[in-house]
Amino acid sequence: MDNHEELRSAICELYAVFGEYPRPSKIKYCVCGCTKPEEISALLAAPLPDLPFDSLANYSFKAMTTQGSVNDFKYFLPRLLEGITQETYRYNPEILFGKLPCGKWLTWDDKEIAAVRGYLIALWRSGLCLYPLQVHFPAFFEIGSILGSLANTGDRLDPYLLIWDETTSLEADQHLIQFVTLYGSEFSNGKALSSGYWETIEQPDVLRRWILKPETLERIKRSKHLLLKDGYEHLFGPALEILHAESSVLNQRS
Q1: How many Cα atoms within 13 Å fall on the side-chain side of residue 246?
Q2: Which of the 8 DSSP states describes residue 44?
Q3: Phi, psi of 67 (to 5 degrees)
Q4: 101 and 179 fall within a common domain
Q5: pLDDT of 7-59, one tens digit each?
């Protein structure tokens, strides 16, 4: 099974596991005017697989805060996680994935946790082997947006970073060079990644240790010929110097 088949299989598993939750007869929502009744009625007008992904965007932003319950979210979850792999998304993808800890997914039934985690792993494996990412996954700008989405689920990052270590494809190396170019300078002066949605989660230190380890730096060195002239290439050299300097400091402390 290749990575793309793994992702399709994982999405099918989401539908099978969360298919136990019936279509809601109604969805409670805030009556302050931030939600239009017709937006809610549209969510209930068709079978789940037939719902246009874009029609779920407003719900995905407000799920379990001003719209619906955890069980409602579980009902819509397969379509949400399927759609974000296929279409553009009105918001940053970290918002959707951040709804999982809002629903306390790590306390759900074991089969539900396994289905979600299986999807997250399959999404990550598939993303690592597709470059440029946004051509294949329009909702994700680059690999950092998938990684940030995974981090926002509240799941441990270590297994995903290990998968990156073990994925030796050209595309995975291209992602690494692009990631260093865009974010490497943020690891200066003992700092961890804090841009975007990283400042609200606890995993940046895990990422910092990973990107500063000698094996990762050696891989970056071997792959630097993959740097594209895309208008950001001038950021790569200074970013790599910062990573080497920070790695030396870290190794001296340990």
Answers
A1: 22
A2: T
A3: -140, 120
A4: no
A5: 999 999 999 999 999 999 998 888 776 777 788 888 998 999 999 999 999 99
Q: Tokens 């690494």 sit at which residue?
A: 176
For 19-157, where are the alpha helices, taking DSSP H only?
37-43, 57-62, 70-83, 93-97, 99-102, 110-128, 133-136, 143-152
Alpha-carbon separation of residue 251 from 203, 233, 248 (angstroms): 20, 28, 5
What total number of domains does the chain contain? Answer: 2
In a shared domain, residues 108 and 201 = no
Torsion, Cα 73 78 79 80, to 10 degrees, reads: 60
d(CA 20, CA 68): 17
Interatomic CA distance for residues 96 and 91, integer angstroms: 8
The three-state secondary structure class of 81 is: helix
Peptide bond into 132 cis (omega under 30): yes
Residue 198 covered by a domain: yes
CA pair distance 155, 231, nearest whole angstrom: 34
Domain that holds residue 163: 156-254
Question: Which residue is it, tokens 């399709």?
Answer: 8
Q: How confident is the model at residue 123 (pLDDT cuts 50, 70, 90)?
A: very high
Q: What is the pLDDT of residues 151-200, one digit of tens each?
A: 999 999 999 999 999 999 999 999 999 999 999 999 999 999 887 788 77
Backbone angles phi, psi at 22, to 5 degrees: -70, 160
What are residue 205's phi and psi, to 5 degrees?
A: -65, -35
Contacts with 173 (C-beta within 8 Å, 6 or more apart), sequence order: 219, 222, 223, 226
Q: Report cis status (omega within 30 of 0) of the bond before 238.
A: no
Q: Tell me which amino acid residue 115 is.
A: A
